[in-house]
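Page 37, continued from 36.
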């Protein structure tokens, strides 16, 4: 046995983060080794659930509890994992390969010595956090990036039809808008751009998405920026916004929206505290840089996976590749031969029923997009790169409505 493998056996594998990525790594390791010590550190309860379901669950009348496949305690016991729930990692010492921890459940954490644990291999799977611009104060605005926060919002919305403003018309914001509408709520979707998904797709494609969103009865305000959100009563919020594009600018002031709730869907960022402590190559916008074939970071014995990770400057925030990524990490930390992870951008599907949007490759709003098929029912466009190769394809279809 090599000295490196001996260290892994002695100090075990520590995983930070109990989202889909962290649990996938545990599953992959346990498929190869039933006994090696695994410690899972998470700031929450560690419950297993499928996060993409959060943008569909309200209309399906599913509570947060309904979405939990297994509690953290049960899942950890089944996988023979030591679970440190409601615990935060406050520092990483890469020389001694030790982590400092503090538990949120301690009665007086400020006066309690930090616990210290050692690792042979460390996997960073702590995800990413919602971005809250200054105009969206966290104490007044919801997000649905985590099941606990989703559960709190779901309870509020369960009391009856309400008016919800969603700021940000990317994939998540657009999906939530339809889900809330189907659940019987009034929805206003606000975005800086003239159409949903404008950060990803060309205007010819996004115009169709905007038309489908509006046809459902969603109030879409494109080309507007939220300036302030203020509470005007125990139940109501006032959302003030302003036009960005000159063609939308009017001499008359824009009447603020009066809503029951505001949801922020304005993108994700990766917290820099642990990456900085671990000394890994890192960018707040895209995440922790890894070597694609091994998913190793720039610091020895530390890996990254999931929303907190980037490959070739592109954040990896989709579920589909996680299983293959976790299998690669499992082989690498266990010292097993493997062919290396080959990153392929996953197919991206918008979960809205009003319109079918499928994207392959690495899309970007600007570039040489060429129409391949265009009709009232379907639009197919290819993004052609500098080598005259197709680097992305978008396929948009209008669902067929069967008439009685």
């Amino acid at each position: 046995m090599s000295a490196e493998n001996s260290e892994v056996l002695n100090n075990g594998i520590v995983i930070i983060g109990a989202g889909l990525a962290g649990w996938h790594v545990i599953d992959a390791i346990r498929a190869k080794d039933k006994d090696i010590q695994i410690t899972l550190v998470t700031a929450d309860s560690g419950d297993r659930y499928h996060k993409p379901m959060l943008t569909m669950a309200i209309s399906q009348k599913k509570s947060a509890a309904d979405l939990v496949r297994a509690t953290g305690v049960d899942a950890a016991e089944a996988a023979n994992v030591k679970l440190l729930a409601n615990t935060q990692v406050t520092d990483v010492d890469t020389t001694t390969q030790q982590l400092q921890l503090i538990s949120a459940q301690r009665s007086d954490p400020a006066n309690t010595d930090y616990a210290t644990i050692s690792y042979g291999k460390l996997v960073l799977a702590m995800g990413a956090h919602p971005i809250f611009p200054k105009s969206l104060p966290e104490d007044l605005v919801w997000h649905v990036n985590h099941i606990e926060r989703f559960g709190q919002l779901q309870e509020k919305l369960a009391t009856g039809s309400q008016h919800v403003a969603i700021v940000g018309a990317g994939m998540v914001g657009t999906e939530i808008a339809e889900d809330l509408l189907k659940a019987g709520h009034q929805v206003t979707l606000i975005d800086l751009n003239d159409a949903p998904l404008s950060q990803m797709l060309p205007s010819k494609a996004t115009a169709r998405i905007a038309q489908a969103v509006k046809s459902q009865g969603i109030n879409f305000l494109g080309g507007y920026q939220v300036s302030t959100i203020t509470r005007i009563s125990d139940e109501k919020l006032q959302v003030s916004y302003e036009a960005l594009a000159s063609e939308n600018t009017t001499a008359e002031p824009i009447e603020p929206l009066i809503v029951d709730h505001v949801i922020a869907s304005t993108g994700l960022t990766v917290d820099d505290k642990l990456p900085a402590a671990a000394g890994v190559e890192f960018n707040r916008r895209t995440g922790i840089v890894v070597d694609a074939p091994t998913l190793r970071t720039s610091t020895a014995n530390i890996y990254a996976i999931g929303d907190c990770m980037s490959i070739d400057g592109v954040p990896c925030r989709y579920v589909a590749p996680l299983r293959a990524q976790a299998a690669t990490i499992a082989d690498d930390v266990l010292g097993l031969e493997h062919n290396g992870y080959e990153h392929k951008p996953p197919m991206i599907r918008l979960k809205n029923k009003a319109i079918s949007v499928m994207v392959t490759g690495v899309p970007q709003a600007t570039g040489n997009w060429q129409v391949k098929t265009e009709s009232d029912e379907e639009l197919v466009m290819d993004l052609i790169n500098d080598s005259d190769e197709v680097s992305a394809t978008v396929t948009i279809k209008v669902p067929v409505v069967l008439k009685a």
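The CA atoms of residues 324 and 341 lie 7 Å apart. Flag for discussion at group meeting. The chain has three domains: 3-128+270-333, 131-264, 348-397.
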